[in-house]
Design brief:
Blueprint (H helix, E strand, L loop, with lengths): L11 E2 L2 H11 L7 E4 L7 H8 L1 E6 L5 H8 L4 E6 L16 E6 L5 H9 L5 E7 L2 H8 L9 H9 L13 E2 L7
Parallel strand pairs: 2-3, 2-5, 3-4, 5-6
Antiparallel strand pairs: 1-7
């Protein structure tokens, strides 16, 4: 298994109960166009493939790509794109009725990524992301609260934003220094 790369902000989810909670909230169905951002070592990728049979994933770390492809080949069809999501045009992915986004986002890019994704809002049906707890609290903050700001306004204008669950650092390898 390739080593963790600090410059990519990699913390790999391994807690099965958290993975199941995410899958339950997402409720993926066969035939849906699902795109995973930052599949990492496949903690969400493989269970998603078992449920959906096809999945598109965008991964920056080229060392993870062959491992993901090999493991996924037994579970379904994985269209794996080796690219930087901050520079990737999501509209280039074929879809008929919009797509769903999911991912355990690298915390060092989560805020700029949210603004980048808003450029494709017309194509996105919904988004389910693991982010640093402080970012999640900013996303769902209401006017007048200390965390309320540009991120809150922009996302709440386009999305129904919900805070789903707390995830401790021990759910990741290596553990981040913050809650998720």
């Amino acid at each position: 298994m390739p080593r963790t790369r600090k410059r990519f902000g990699q913390h790999f989810l391994h807690d099965q109960s958290i993975i199941e909670s995410i899958l339950s909230a997402l409720d993926p169905q066969p035939g849906e166009k699902l795109i995973e951002i930052g599949p990492g070592r496949g903690a969400l990728t493989y269970p998603l493939l078992q449920r959906c049979e096809t999945l598109t994933a965008i991964e920056l770390d080229r060392d993870l790509v062959p491992v993901l492809k090999q493991q996924a080949s037994r579970l379904g069809t994985l269209d794996l794109i080796n690219a930087d999501i901050l520079e990737f045009d999501l509209s280039s992915i074929p879809h008929e009725e919009g797509f769903r986004l999911v991912g355990n986002l690298p915390y060092n890019i989560s805020t700029p990524l949210m603004f980048h994704l808003l450029e494709s809002a017309q194509d996105i049906r919904d988004m389910h992301f693991m982010v640093q707890k402080e970012v999640a609290l900013r996303i769902v903050a209401h006017a007048g609260e200390a965390n309320y700001g540009r991120l809150s306004v922009m996302l709440q204008y386009r999305c129904d934003c919900q805070y789903l669950l707390d995830v401790p650092p021990s759910s990741f390898k290596p553990p981040p220094k913050v809650d998720s």
